[in-house]
Amino acid sequence: MKINVLFASCIVALTSFSAAAQQPQGSLNIMDTLALPVLPETPTFRNHNYVFKARLDSIQKMVPLSYNEHVQKYIDVYSGRKEMMGKMIGLSEYYFPVFEKALKFYNIPEEIKYLPVIESAMNAHAVSRVGATGLWQFMFATAKDYGLNMDNFVDERKDPIQASYAAAAYFKDAYQELGDWLLAIAAYNCGMGNVKRAIIKADSHDFWEIRPYLPLETRNYVPAFIAALYVMKCSGQHQIKAQASPFVKNTDTIHVNRFVSLPQLATALSIEEDALCSLNPSYKKKIVNGTELEPKRIVIPKVNMGQFAEIYEVLNNAELDVNQNVYLASNDDRRLKKKITAKPTAAVSYHKVTPGQTLNAIANKYNVEVQDLKVWNGLKSSSIVPGQKLKIHNPEPTKRKKSAIQG
Fold first, then answer.
1. Does the residue 93 lie in any domain?
2. In terms of DSSP bridges, do strands 348-352 and 296-301 run parallel, antiparallel, or are they unpaired?
3. 23-73 pLDDT, tens per residue?
4. Range of the domain at 352
5. 405 within a domain of the structure (yes/no)
C-alpha cells in the first residue's frame, strides 16, 4: 500500500516549494556572516601559487573564480580548518541537492550553493548578532520581501527548501540589476545599494576594482566564498576527510492539513525526536500547523509497512491541546532591540472560570499559550472547574493580533 493512499485524509499532492519571485524592496544588508573570519589587508602578494590558480580555473563554471592574494588568504584559512570543512562536506550530501533544485528553478549558477558554508556553516538554526537567521542568513525584512513567513509557529528562514528558493529569487534580481555574479554575491552580503555606490565611486563593474569601496566584511566575503568553494571541491588535495552526514539519506515528504506534533510523530516513526526536528527545523514549537487552506510540509525518513498504523493515527486522529491561532511575527532585528533600556514589569491578573469554559478558550481570550496557563497555575492537566481562579501574566484581551496563516 502506498503512503499517499494510506494517508489520503491528511496528505495533499506534492507541489512546488518555491517562494514567489518579487522585485527587491530592500537589501539583505546582513554584514554579519557567522563563519567568515575577517583578515587584514595584504599590501603585497609574495606567495602566488600557480597550482591553486590552475585548480580554480579547472573547476570554474559560470561564476568567475579569480585567484589573488585575497583568495589565497582564505584558502589558507579554510584548508587549515580540516575538521570544520570535513563537516561541511558531510552536511553538503543532504543540503546541496536541496540548494541545487532551487537554484536551477531560477537559472542561478550551481556554484552559489556554497554560500551557506560561509554564511551559516550550514546550520539551519544559525542566528547572527543582528538577527540574520537560517542557512542563508536572511534578515527579517528581506525574508518577508521574498515570500518567507515568520509567525508564532514557524520561521521559514530556517526551512532549507523555502529559504533556498527565496535566496535564488534574490540572486535572480541582483544579477538582472548588476549584471555580474561576483557583484551579485557581494550584494547578498551588503545590499545592492552599497554595491551600486561602490560601482559609481570606482567607475567600474569589476568586483576587484570596486572592492576598496565596499564595507570591510564584503571585501572579504567574495574571496572567502571562492576559497570555500575551492577547498570543498579540492578537499582531497588538502587532506580533508568528509565526515558522516547527521541526516538520514532516504526521506519522504508529506503534507498535512491539521496540527501535528513532531515528538508524537517521532515516536510513531521509532526515531529520536531531535532527528525528526532536524529534518524540519522551521517549526518553533515542534508542532506542524497545517490547515485545509495551507497544508504544511513534513520531511520524514522512509517508512516501512509496520509503521503505517501508528503514523496514520498521529497524522489523522491525535489531538493537540494547543492554541491554534497564528500571529505574524514582528521584526526581529537585534539592533533594534538594543534600544530597549528597561524590561517592563510583568502585569498579572486573575480569571474566574465560568461554567463550560475550557483552558484552551481562556488561553485564546488572553492571547497566551495553554502550557503557560498550566505553568503559572501549577496545573498538571487541562481540567478546570467553574469558580476556579487562574493567574494570567501579561493579559492582552483587547490587543489581539489579526490571525493569519501564510505558507
1. yes
2. unpaired
3. 333 334 444 455 566 666 655 556 677 899 999 999 999 999 999 999 999
4. 345-393
5. no
Same domain, 234 and 349: no
Strands of 197-353 (E only): list them: 251-256, 259-261, 287-289, 296-301, 348-352
Q: Which phi and psi (to 5°) does residue 48 adopt?
A: -65, 125
Copy the grid coordinates of residue 370: 495553554
Q: What is the mean pLDDT of residues 335-345?
A: 46
Structural domain tally of the chain? 2
Give Cα separations from 281 to 26, 153, 206 (angstroms): 26, 11, 38
Q: Is 269 helix (H, G, I), strand (E, B) or coil?
A: helix
Q: Which of 207, 238, 269 is the last residue of a domain?
A: 238
H helix or E strand, kind and range, residue 144 = helix 140-145
Please work out, in degrees rounded to the nearest 5, the angle formed at the alpha carbon of residue 222 by the alpha carbons of 220 and 223.
65
Instruction: Give the domain CATH number at 371.
Output: 3.10.350.10
Among the three residues 238, 268, 286, which one is the final residue of a domain in this structure? Answer: 238
Residue 102 to residues 165, 178, 207, 234, 316: CA-CA distances in angstroms?
5, 21, 25, 24, 31
* 184 domain residue, yes or no: yes
The predicted-structure confidence for 88-110, as pLDDT tens digits, reads as follows: 999 999 999 999 999 999 999 99
Work out whether the CA dihedral 371, 374, 375, 377 comes out positive or negative.
Answer: positive
